[in-house]
Structures
1.
Amino acid sequence: MRESRRFPIPEGLEGMRADAALAKLIGISRAKAADLCMAGDVEMDGAAVAKSDRLEAGGWIDVMMPAPEEPLIPKEELVEGMDVLYADDDVICVHKPVGVAAHPTLGWEGPTVIGGLRAAGYQLADAGPTERKGIVHRLDVGTSGVMVVAASERAYSQLKAAFKERTVTKTYHAVVQGLPDPIVGTIDAPIGRHPSSGWKFAVVDDGKHAVTHYKLLEAFREASLLEVHLETGRTHQIRVHMAATGHPCVGDPMYGCDPNLAKRLRLVRQWLHAVTLGFAHPGTGKYFEVSAPYPDDLRFALEELRG
């Protein structure tokens, strides 16, 4: 239910645009504040306020408050192919299959790690937003591999800090097209939104700092198996960095793979797998490591490349 609320305009907002000031005043995004202004839901001293109008200190602003958004509630259903690799009172380590999201998001109606764990009876930490309680990191829907989920509050706090401070060991295996040169290297290139395709990412000058380390494990005629370690954790980081070097992940059409090679290997997603995750266990403080084997589709493609 919507309600009208009145706010005094403090001196600190004097001369500020209405949308920017409203965002600060009532704690919503500037875009939502602009929408309220354009809908005629904001008045200053009885007169309608446009989003670009400047506020005057000492006056009053009336806002028809937006209805609260319904929280995304994870679907609680068992997830086919998702295995629990390890579980205790603090952490749950899972092998996330391809086609499964870490948690619900707007527009995603498929299975999630959270929903699968809850359906299986696992207790997750209460910390975090409703739709992703216990989630401390994510894997892309199209990437398989090991994930850790917090089962306790202390685990959530400690693991979030560990990922932020980059003390978690994250090891991926990727099959990329061609042979990288050098065969052991570091890609240090900023990543941001693609300049012409907002649903993609790219190496861009004003992007966020991103560092990827790789080394060759096995070379084939058309592709290479790499071990990859992430120093940072940007969205699509491995896929973007490898594509930027001219060696996209096999089976990744979003970032320029050869569709004929992917078809021959029967791949309908990128050959990318989170193999190992290592961290200080929140309960014992000791280093703890868990690994996930290759799923069938990646193993088949690898064997095809080996001939």
Note: The first strand starts at residue 3 and ends at 8.
2.
Amino acid sequence: MAMSWKHGERGEVRVFEDKEELSTNLVDYIADLSEAAVKERGVFAVALSGGSLIGLIGKLCEAPYNKTVDWTKWYVFWVDERVVAKNHVDSNYKLAKEGFLSKVPILPSHVTSINDTVTAEGAADDYTFAIRQLVRTRIVDVCDTCDCPKFDLVLLGMGADGHVASLFPSHPALKESDEWITFIVDSPKPPPERITFTLPVINSAANVAIVATGGSKAHAAHLAIDEKADHPSLPAGLVSPSNGSLVWFLDSEAASKLDNYKFSE
């Protein structure tokens, strides 16, 4: 049982009864985008977030996807990363490697993780440089209308406060428009030092998915999806691809406060 509807500039909203159903549909969506990108461009450039998202895409490691997805064409990036050692418990790289990357045949040279031996500012600069090199060779596509990379898919989780990536409500990083990657040293959630894609890069993607589960996300989902023009936007509400598609994946609890939400019994 699932619901799906278009919501104007807020993209497509897909609501699932539970996490299991959401996970099944999310990995189908990712596999379909991978196939389409490989056919069109010969590669699939995907940017991951951390948190519960990695667990929700775990089915990609199982049949049939472990055989049908062309893993050698995947290039993996991080939408944001904590500036900690790669083997640190807070590392998004560590989370993704243990829960996903180590279980599928993605080439290690196709995985772009941060330099964990430098400062947050240095890590942001290094990550920008790495992406620029791959834009030059068109491993990562380029936006037609701006000087931004155009990832085939940006996968975002959403916090209960409406943050996406490491872009938090009312934080100056939300207004960064010149850099592809910015850094913060005062994250309201530990650890404090992080690097993150900026909104222009997220909004230049060919496809963006925002995934949220659980009742703690319901209020933020309502504000981000249903909010009126006079309401201060949450970071998730500022995600609006300029020339791409946006799909929300919500379970019934996260969707429970949406204006258009009613699961029929």
Note: Residues 9-255 form a domain with the Rossmann fold fold (CATH 3.40.50.1360).
